[in-house]
Amino acid sequence: MQGINRMFQLGLLLGLELGLQGALPPPCDSQIYCTGELLRQVQMAKLYQDDKHFVDMPLTKAPDQVLSDFNELLNSSGGNISRDHLITFVNEHFQDPGQEMETWIPEDWTPSPKFLQKISDTRLRAWAEDLHNLWKKLGRKIKLEVSDQPDQYSLIYAAHPFIVPGGRFIEFYYWDSFWVMQGLLLSEMPGTVKGMLQNFLDIVKHYGHIPNGGRVYYLQRSQPPLLTLMMDQYLAYTDDLDFLRENIGTLDLELDFWMHNRSVNISHNGENYILNRYHVPYGGPRPESYSKDEELAELLPEDAQESLWTELKAGAESGWDFSSRWFVGSNYLLDIKTSQVVPVDLNAFLCQAEELLATFYTKLGNTNMAQYYLEAQAQRKAAMKALLWNETLGSWFDFLLENRQQNHGFYPSNLSPLWAGCFSDLDTVRKNVKYLENNKILTYKHGIPSSLQISGQQWDFPNAWAPLQDLVVKGLADSSSAQAQEVAFQLAQNWIRTNFALYQKNKAMYEKYDISIDSGEPGGGGEYEVQEGFGWTNGVALQFLNRYGDRLTSRSGPMLPSTSWLLLALPLLGLLC
């Protein structure tokens, strides 16, 4: 054990050293899609309502020719290209977004998956059938021409078809895909899931990590690391050990990326701990939000602008783009310092990945690597308990590196260690339920808010997001506490009714919901309009319908009141275990 422990420490320290020396993923070097004067001119002219539109447009010519034509236009105009000339140039050299893909109906889609029969409420069952049908609308396949001429596209080629989130998000996204895959497996579509997994594994082999999404301008950053958990969910359905054996090294490689490039060493009470953070060491505006990033930076001195852009990219890497979680000292985006936050959920995800890799290696007969990952997880759990756990408040909290204090604001991610299965003893579960009650989270009738802060950002109050519902519900539901299990059901019931009511009204699923409105409405705030689709919302709804199908109801009228009465009643009824 001591030898394994020493090996683990040396591996982490080597990873930290490599990260400092620049062993980083290759940034996108495209002078059209990622940086350069053409990108700046078009985006700052705001030719399109959404900056993402331009950087998703395929080229009609080779990039060298496009740049040559642009430089000729730039020189002939004395550096000041008119808006009309820019529009003409773009129309001649670019195509509309999405033409490099085609709609794809999954071959393994079947009309009547078995989980539908578990749903007692006939209205909810009909709705679940609609959600199951949506996979056919969200399926995409990349045309071979993207593989043949990759430099004419911002799209990253993926050999296998996949499910997209929806709306403006017409390519694959990393952490979205986990909840999509869960829904696909309930829909009895393991072939589609395997293809999506293979795409991610191929991308790790090529780039060393999985980018935020399937575009070259996302290559500078990743997203919450759920690849190992995706593999676990697929294996639980198929028991495809040959697929695991072929790809176990790639799972190692992805975890190495996080340990080599996103680790931070923290001294606390005479001990040294290593945990992880989101951190993108590349400046410049995000290409897909270029004008917004540029205009925000103009409010700062020039020497502070690059730092702002790196922190915005780190915030995007977190998946929470953006939230008061990442603001230090105020509720304003200018004060974003994502890299100075050690997030609970990121470390919970990695804690879970380490345990799963130990399990995988045990199945494959490699006891040394299994022991390595068990030791890695043990050290992470010790660090999380020392730095992120708060005994008085009864939950985990993000750790702020600058002031060496916890951020005691409420975020659903505070309960993610329960979801990850890294901490699940009964006493800890009970304290987290009490924490929810103390923060009055159980009084919200339409879902769990992303935070209790009003900042105007989309990952704050009053928005609620499907994956954050799952982070709380699954952790409580999988515990051995009857009290926590009942709270989980009530939270799931509230969310299902919110999704269902709005679907009945608008015939659409949304990426986020405004839970401050009495009936629940599509969410708002942030950098773009709320999007329909929506992959991970569908996946979480199907999970809840599968878990609680015999109990959930769709009835209209007032939703169930606060579960506070239930928390008081359960001990009296002798139901606490």
List keywords for this structure.
577 residues; mainly alpha; three-stranded antiparallel β-sheet; 21 helices; 13 strands; disordered N terminus; disordered C terminus
Structure description:
With 577 residues, the chain is mainly alpha-helical. The chain has a domain at 424-577. It contains 21 helices and 13 strands. It has a three-stranded antiparallel beta sheet with strand order 1-2-3. β4 and β5 (271-276) form a beta hairpin. α19 runs antiparallel to α21 (564-573).
Low-confidence stretches: 1-26, 557-577
Q: Would you report the number of β strands?
A: 13
The rounded distance between the terminal residues' Cα atoms is: 35 Å
Structural class label: mainly alpha
Content of β-strand: 5-15%
Widest sheet, order of strands = 1-2-3
| Number of alpha- plus pi-helical segments | 21
Computed Rg = 24 Å
**Helical amount among residues, as a percent range?**
40-55%
Shape: globular
Mean pLDDT: 92
Largest sheet: 3 strands, antiparallel
Quick recap of the structure?
By secondary structure, this protein is mostly helical. 49% of the residues lie in helices and 7% in strands. It has a domain of 154 residues.
Layout of SSEs?
Elements: H1 2-21, H2 37-45, H3 51-55, H4 63-76, H5 83-93, E1 101-103, H6 122-138, E2 139-142, H7 144-148, E3 162-163, H8 174-186, H9 190-207, H10 227-238, H11 241-261, E4 263-268, E5 271-276, H12 290-297, H13 305-317, E6 341-342, H14 344-363, H15 367-387, E7 389-390, E8 395-396, E9 399-400, E10 405-406, H16 416-419, H17 426-438, E11 463-465, H18 466-477, H19 482-506, E12 512-514, E13 521-522, H20 535-548, H21 564-573
Antiparallel strand pairs: 1-2, 2-3, 4-5, 6-9, 7-8, 9-10, 11-12, 12-13
